[in-house]
Amino acid sequence: MTWQTNLQGRIGVAQDGAFGVKSFTTLFQKLGASKDRAEELAIGAAVHLPAYGIMDSAQRLAHFLAQVGHESGSFKYMEEIASGSAYEGRANLGNTQLGDGVRFKGRGPIQITGRANYRFFGRQIGIDLERRPEIAAYPSIGMHLACAYWSNRNLNGLADKDLLEDITRKINGGLNGLADRKSRLVAMKGLVA
Question: Where does the Glycoside hydrolase family 19 catalytic domain start and stop, copy by copy (predicted)?
Answer without folding.
Answer: 66-151
